[in-house]
Design a protein that fits this description.
Blueprint lengths: L7 H49 L10 E5 L1 H4 L12 E10 L4 E6 L9 E2 L3 E3 L3
Antiparallel strand pairs: 1-2, 1-5, 2-3, 3-4
Length: 128
């Protein structure tokens, strides 16, 4: 005949396993709530970022005949400055043609036409 007498260690381990199982079930029940909270936080964050971006970015639209400045060549191509005092902007130029896709043909004030079009991100309004 065999007699099994559990030791204190075995009894404690079995009770810990039961409590661990109960904790796991409780955690699994709360997972959906945590996911929903995380989704809501993410949505609020995205909305705040959208609002901040909309406040910081001002769309630019230029019309024909408007005076503008364009960025210097070394700035557009991300080259080192020719000198410490080299200007970042050139101009003023007059917009000869404006296209809906965001590029413009420019002329100098003396009437010289620039052959290459330029994107609107490289232009800013000139205030005389």
């Amino acid at each position: 005949m065999e007699l099994v007498v559990p030791t204190l260690r075995v009894i404690l381990k079995e009770s810990q396993e039961d409590t661990n199982n109960e904790r796991r079930l409780a955690d699994l029940e709360g997972v959906e709530e945590e996911r929903e909270l995380a989704r809501r936080r993410s949505q609020r964050y995205q909305q705040r970022m959208t609002r901040a971006y909309a406040q910081a970015v001002h769309p630019r639209a230029f019309t024909e005949g408007q005076l503008v400045l364009r960025t210097a060549e070394h700035v557009r191509r991300n080259l080192p400055r020719p000198s410490k005092f080299a200007p970042k902007w050139e101009g003023p130029y007059i917009i000869k043609e404006a296209h809906d896709s965001g590029y413009y043909y420019l002329t100098k004030e003396d009437g010289t036409v620039l052959t290459k079009p330029i994107n609107e991100k490289w232009l800013k309004q000139y205030y005389a």
